[in-house]
Write a structure and sequence with these properties.
With 241 residues, the protein is α/β, with parallel strands linked by helices. Helix 1 runs parallel beside helix 7.
């Protein structure tokens, strides 16, 4: 059995580790991070060239099942995976970590998109901790606030006129996030609802500091695609097949 895992997420790597040695596993990474953490098994890096390219790859390499374990906000890749799996007549499962849930004391401002997040900043604060990734930075380019932008790789222009770049990779600690918010005098946090524990401490630190959090809601999984919440659930789905 040959399983294609799409995505370089923590869950994708964990799933590859669970399946390695039991079935043939190929993990496909988008190549957006310069030095990705490689999973167990075979690895390919780069896009497929859209739906047709993915269908051709699946057929050429005898793929029996596809796991969409991409980032919860990789909407286009998930859409392509759903169409390609249907065209190639192979089963598809989406592996999605659960989203974050607000608790007492949180000051969340839910928004549907990065554009809406940029528009929500007026009146919330003047010193923004932006943790939405380097690819969406242009959305905030016209904002007058000061931004601390944290990303794995250096972002490209355009970006806000007043920006400080912090290159770092999770997991992050609560003490570290507390210190970062205090040192940079952050008064508003912007994040995507990525879920997971690796970057969640910033939410706790913001709650403790009374800082509002603009949370970009994640897009839905394509209609009709079953979802697993953990690598263990996804591995069991594969091995049952």
């Amino acid at each position: 059995m040959h399983v294609l895992i799409l995505g370089g997420t923590t869950e994708a790597r964990a799933l590859a580790g669970l399946l390695h040695g039991k079935v043939r596993v190929t993990s496909s990474l988008a190549g957006r991070v310069a030095s990705p953490r490689l999973p167990a098994g075979e690895v390919r890096i780069g896009g497929f060239g859209g739906v047709d390219g993915l269908v051709a790859w699946v057929r050429e390499h005898g793929v029996d099942a596809v796991i969409d374990a991409t980032h919860p906000f990789a909407e286009r890749i998930s859409f392509n995976a759903a169409r390609a799996a249907a065209t190639a007549h192979v089963p598809l499962l989406a592996l999605r970590r659960p989203g974050w849930v607000p608790v007492d004391g949180d000051r969340w401002v839910p928004v549907p998109s990065l554009d809406a997040a940029a528009g929500a900043l007026d009146g919330l604060g003047d010193r923004v901790f932006l943790t939405t990734g380097r690819l969406g930075l242009a959305t905030f380019a016209a904002c007058p606030q000061w931004f601390l932008v944290r990303s794995v790789d250096a972002p490209d222009a355009p970006m806000p006129a007043r920006t400080e770049i912090l290159l770092d990779r999770g997991p992050f600690t609560l003490d570290g996030e507390r210190e970062l918010l205090a040192r940079h005098r952050i008064d508003v946090l912007v994040t995507k609802d990525s879920g997971g524990a690796a970057t969640a401490p910033k939410l706790t630190a913001a709650r403790e500091a009374g800082i509002p959090v603009v949370v970009v809601r994640r897009p839905p999984v394509p209609e009709g695609v079953p979802v697993a919440a953990t690598p263990e659930e996804a591995a069991a789905w594969v091995l049952r097949g």
